[in-house]
Backbone:
């Protein structure tokens, strides 16, 4: 069974994330969405809220693709998380050239720790490439329209969290 790991903070999950998840699900038999606890980033949503939103948004994708998609919180090294879930492939999304430098360094470090785990980069569709969770939260805080960046469910959760609903 080919297992993929798509890690991130997902604070919140965006349509860009969903696009990468949909496409990654076609490459593996089981896709684990690694939800980074990452206390340093100070996420707006709790770990439980982020996992719940991912599970809700991925349920239909799992049915559509026939790939089991599960959320898995982690706080250890990415390569250790890959071992924990039995992943042979780490999936990373790229939005722009600016992402590549950091991702290139990360791949090098991960390969030094375990060369048997491959990293696959997927580009989000053009209409989703500019979407970043940080920017979505900022737009929502300033009462802008985020409906083209997140699903209706995540939109309502974010607006409710910020008290702008």
Residues:
């Amino acid at each position: 069974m080919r297992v993929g790991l798509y890690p991130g903070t997902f604070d919140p999950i965006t349509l860009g994330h969903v696009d990468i998840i949909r496409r990654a699900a076609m490459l593996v038999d089981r896709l684990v969405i690694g939800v980074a606890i990452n206390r340093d980033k100070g996420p707006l949503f709790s770990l439980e809220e982020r996992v719940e939103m991912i599970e809700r948004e991925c349920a239909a994708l799992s049915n559509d693709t026939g790939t089991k998609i599960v959320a898995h919180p982690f706080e250890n090294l990415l390569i250790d998380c890959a071992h924990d879930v039995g992943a042979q492939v780490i999936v990373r999304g790229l939005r722009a050239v600016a992402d590549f430098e950091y991702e290139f360094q990360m791949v090098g470090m991960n390969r030094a720790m375990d060369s048997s785990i491959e990293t696959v980069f997927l580009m989000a569709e053009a209409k989703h490439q500019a979407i970043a969770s940080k920017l979505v939260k900022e737009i929502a805080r300033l009462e802008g329209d985020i409906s083209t960046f997140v699903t209706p469910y995540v939109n309502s959760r974010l607006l409710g969290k910020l008290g702008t609903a």
In short: The CA atoms of residues 31 and 69 lie 5 Å apart. The mean pLDDT is 93. The first helix runs from residue 15 to 25. The helical segments are 15-25, 47-65, 78-85, 97-113, 133-141, 152-162.
